[in-house]
Amino acid sequence: RTTMKSLRFISAEAFVSNAEFARKSLGAVAHDLFPLLFKASYLLEQGEVIHDLVENWPLFDFNMGKLLGATLDYQEDLSHRTCSVCLESCLTGLRDYVLNQSSPYMKKLKVVDLTGIKDVEVQFCKCKKTMGRWARTQLLSKLCSELLVYLQQAQCNPGTFEISINVLIDLFVTERNYELVVQALLKKCSCPLKISCVAFRSDNLTLQKFFYIIKLTDPSLLRKLEIVHNVHLEMEHLEILFNSIHFPLLMSLTLPARTFNVRRFTATDEQMLTNIGEKMGEMTQLTELSMSFSILTGRIQKLLSPLKTPLKMLDVSNCSLNHADMAYLANSFHANHLEALDLSGHDIPELYPSTFFKLLSHCSSVLRSLTLEDCNIQDTHVNMLILGLSPCQKLQEFKFIGNPLSSQALKYLFTFLCELPMLKNVEFPVPRDCYPIGITYPIDDASLCRFDHQKYERVAEELNLILLQANREDVKASTPLFGSYDAAVQETNNELGAYLIKSFKETLEKFTTSFNKMS
Known about the structure:
Keywords: Leucine-rich repeat, Repeat. The chain is α/β, with parallel strands linked by helices.
């Protein structure tokens, strides 16, 4: 699919394609052409030109999302291209903007917004080397620290110290880049480039380090907070966090697995849960909440009823919800506003079929994403599922891997899915008849790949043919056996893997020591 380019854009491409000529000629370029030249340079991966454009940026703001998004001159959105060459050139150009004393342009730049960059699985850039969120956090922090060292050592123009640029960024901090980010945040006041954290993701951090760095980020500006995987945050720590720090603008909150476990609850824990619910109620902007792999049986109402704003996204996958929880969700004021819902890991047909379908009917007019993985949906439930999904005309994404459905049932379901006009992404299970007879669900990791791969390929082809014959080539259908693509996990999987091995080794050593003492 080719995207139309205006004559202006074609001319801009021609101009930047000769990097040496373009760099020499920038001084004669009108200010309002800089955004056009930036997008053309980004498309052609002209790193040196990108660097010089940013170094001499003549405008008040530099917004990556807007600059790379659809424009009248070139409709294609390039904001999902996290090209390493382009992004590094951008950030080093920003550092040199501060240091460049001979630039012909008056320094007007006040705000740089890097939050519009989207990390996706498939990259179209020629270099094929990406710079993800973690690496962007790392590089910006490093450049800020280097900039300060240079300014303290060199004889700079006094005007350099008056430069103050807010750099809006989504930070991603793990043990490996923690020290560097802390240093950049601590020296924010003296640095011309001021890191302004809009979204914060932490993984593989001790609680002490997490609490320290979250205070440095200026939580009053935070819109999104993700505490994931190897941050061992439990309910009492969450209460301390909410009691000691206010998040007035927080719109999205993700908590790590096992934050809550109601099976161990005492009267004190019940009060703690009530306090946490009330604190979340004070976050008047909160519309997205993810609490997967916690045990929340019978407590959903206590947590969600204090919220003043209806939730648009709710992930309660593998949270051991009971009928009372589902009844609360179906009848709550959140139900009519849910655009994304994840109820994976619950035996929906067995436990609360009618309540679930009531919830689905309430959110059907706005629902965009539905995830029902490992929900024990079988062939006999497909007709009911189709009835429930029929009103969901805005559904863009439906994920239901891990359900014991036959290839015949999947074909029947796909014929219906073709009728959902907005649908773009379907994640379907390996058909039950591809596995050995007697397989039990949910399938354990060891058995997950032990299916007839040739038969699966044949079924997948037939399912894609159903989409093709209905003129639905726009729908992507896949079976990600080990979960959907997660850019953040993909980028840091080496570090997380090393952490897990280290934890396992420490546990083994403790066990051996205890065993030797007993002997």
